Amino acid sequence: xxxNIVLLVEDNPDDEELTLMAFKxxxxxxxxVVVHDGVEALEYxxxxxxxxxxxxxxxxxxxxxxxxxxxxxxxxxxxxIRSDPRTQLLPxxxxxxxxxxxxxxxxxxxxxxxxxxxxxxxxGFAEAIQQLGLYxxxxxxxxxxx
Amino acid sequence: MIETSSLRIIQNGALxxxxxxxxxxxxxxxxxxxxxxxxxxxxxxxxxxxxxxxxTPWVMAPGIIFDTRSVLLGIAGLFFGTIPTxxxxxxxxxxxxxxxxxxxxMGISVILVTGAIGIIWRRWLHKPLEALNWRELxxxxxxxxxAMLLCAFTLPLSTALPLLxxxxxxxxxIYPLGTMALGLVMVNRLxxxxxxxxxxxxxxxxxxxxxxxxxxxxxVQEFLDFALDQALRLTESKIGYIYFYSEERKEFVLNTWxxxxxxxxxxxxxxTCYELEKTxxxxxxxxxxKAIVLNDFQTAHPLKKGVPAGHVKLLKFMTLPIFSTxxxxxVVGVANKESNYNEADVLQLTLLMDGVWKAIQQKKAAEAxxxxxxxxxxxxxxxxxxxxxxxxxxxxYVSNFGEGLREAGLSNETLVxxxxxxxxxxxxxxxxxxxYRQVLAGKTVHFEGSFGxxxxxxxxxxxxxxxGNIIQxxxxxxxxxxxxxxxxxxxAANLELQQFFEESDRLRRALLSVVEDQRAAQEKVEQLNRxxxxxxxDRTAQLETANKELEAFAYSVSHDxxxxxxxxxxxxxxxxxxYSQHLDEQGQHYLARIQEASRRxxxxxxxxxxxxxxxxxxxxxxxxxxxxxxxxxxxxxVGPAPQRQVEFDIAPDLLxxxxxxxxxxxxxxxxxxxxxxxxxxTQAQIKFGMDEQNGSKVYFVRDNGAGFDMAYADKLFIPFxxxxxxxxxxxxxxxxxxVKRIISRHGGEIWPExxxxxxxxxxxxLKEGER
Lengths: 146, 771
What we know:
The complex is a heterodimer of chains A (146) and B (771).
Chain A: E1 6-9, H1 13-25, E2 32-35, H2 38-46, E3 62-65, H3 74-83, E4 92-96, H4 101-109, E5 114-117, H5 122-139
Parallel strand pairs in A: 1-2, 1-3, 3-4, 4-5
Chain B: H1 2-29, H2 35-55, E1 58-61, E2 64-66, H3 69-80, H4 82-99, H5 104-124, H6 134-150, H7 157-214, H8 220-235, E3 239-246, E4 251-257, H9 259-264, E5 273-275, H10 284-287, E6 292-294, E7 317-324, E8 327-335, H11 343-382, E9 386-392, E10 397-401, H12 403-407, H13 412-415, H14 420-424, H15 426-440, E11 445-451, E12 454-464, E13 470-479, H16 481-512, H17 514-578, H18 585-616, E14 621-625, H19 626-638, E15 646-650, E16 655-659, H20 660-677, E17 684-693, E18 696-703, H21 735-745, E19 750-755, E20 759-764
Parallel strand pairs in B: 15-17
Antiparallel strand pairs in B: 1-2, 3-4, 3-8, 4-5, 6-7, 7-8, 9-10, 9-13, 11-12, 12-13, 14-16, 17-18, 18-20, 19-20
Helix pairs in contact in B: 1-2, 1-3, 1-7, 2-3, 2-4, 3-4, 3-5, 3-7, 4-5, 5-6, 6-7, 7-8, 7-11, 8-11, 16-17, 17-18, 18-21, 19-20, 20-21
């Protein structure tokens, strides 16, 4: 049984709060787990030793990943996730301020499922979060858990 | 009787010999001007002598009287000339007539015949009297006395025949001999006279020459003036000239003429230079290369070419060439001697002028020698620190001079007689001797050596005697101590000079061939290209670095600057949405302002990022349909506000070679601006098209919107500079900067044309054809 968790990797507390607010406004009740950097994200997904064994936590239905993160940045996290069979198929949405072509290309190359740019104005931001939630949590059929 | 006859014969002989004395008077009278009186006087004396001769006869037989009147008159005619002889003949004929007697006709006829024979003989004689020899005189005696014997036929034949048979033998035996003897005496006197004359003339000439030679030459001109004076004196001439003659140019140059000429000559513009061809008689001396004498100048002469009007009158003339080693160097001419010019004059003048010429040569040579000596002295004196030594074959100092002698602490006196071994020491002496032995072998040597702490450069050469044997050595030593110190500098200068020459040579060779020239130019171009390439690479590297920095900055801006804005906007929005009941209207207004400011900031950041992207993005030229892009942009613009009345006029098929992405951004900005600034027009018109201007394509975006004052046109392309307030037309002031950047990257230009309230046109060009 799945809890349909959303994993939010966000170091900025403002963005974190605004994202959570947006989920709330969108009437999405799924649990949102927030980690604040890449290392934390990997620990959450692959466990502390990260090497083997079962996952510590249940895999989220979707991971919202910021690119610019302390310690290990978003692209490195993505790389590790895709190289680990346990998380290889995990839906990953890059949610970032950057609109740099380089970032977009790198993200898709490393296997991001979607790339969403955070608008500056909250209305747009909230709408984006709402649609994301709607799509990835309801419309999208996630890969089967093994 | 016999004794008386003998005595008479002796008396006759003595009387005849007295004629010789009288002859001296004849010779003297040659030099006087009153010749006629002299001749008459001498004729009287001859007549007197003849009377005495006739008064001392010897009687051969009764009535047959002999005397020597035939000899006297014959010789007189021959040697004394016509006038004295005729006078004597007259006197004697008259005297004989007075004596009377049977023999009178014969006596008178003898007087006339013998005198006449003498006179005629003199006339017919075509050579000087002194040249007569004894044979000719003997012959003259025979002719004279045969004529005398024939006079016997003036007597009755009966008297004549016995007389002739008696006297013929003794007369012909004795009288011709007597005539010959007296003639020889006369000839001898003549010869002596001539010799005396010549001696005297030679003496005069020698005196002249001595005077000429003793005369200090101030100038050749002055010397020749003097020489001409002497020539005139020697030849008893009144006027004269000396011309220099050039064999090469065949030209005479008047050097001097006598003072008399200028006094008498009235030629208006006397020439002083004549070409040989144009000369008359006086050029003959050159043409015939011998002396020319004309004693009858006023009579016509085939060689004369006349003289200029006013020329001094010439009576007698003599000219002769002066030779120097078989070349004619000058011509001297003298004229108007009282008597005829003769060979003696020619000889004297030739000798004088030869002497004069040799004197000139000698003086010139002496002058040249003096100058040469002076030059030598000047050279030696001006050779700084030079020593000159002359050595004998045993290397003994013979003579020493030069400024360097004293400087080296030496003197001529102390050196003379010593050998180089004594002066230089055995070691150095032997070294130097080695060089000098080569000189003795006939070579000229140069070597360097040190003496007394000074360096010398020595040039040594052999001195030879007249037979060419080497008798001495001359050595010139130059102190080169200082030179040696500057040698290094000199070497450096030489090197520089050499480099200069090499460079010149290189340039010359480069110029020699056009091909080489071109190759050089090509090399230069290639080098410039390489340099340029290097610079481009350097610049590219710099640009890449700058781009990387810019990218890093942009990246950071993208991520970090936007998050706070989002927070500002988000939280103020949340406040407005959920806590509006706690805020009054003013408070809500403030929150709205915060939201607006943060969004505006967001837009600014967005535009700046676009600008930076436009700059950083790699260009990819391809065929781009601008019309198509423009149509799409127009649709997008019209879409959100379909209520606006906007007429887009987009020219079709504007195909360019450009970066599609960048051109889209540019047109978005331009058309977007046009759309924005026509927002207040009731009927907006936006046109995108292309004009050909000066053969190049100019694209334009034209609107009929707000327009702007062209005075501010230059502010359009500066970031953040705006010509309208944000309330009127919102914007960040980045758009046109971005457009300009894009156009620039395409090698084109952009410029506006606008009028307030009428509209704006932006023109731009694109450098196409480069892919």
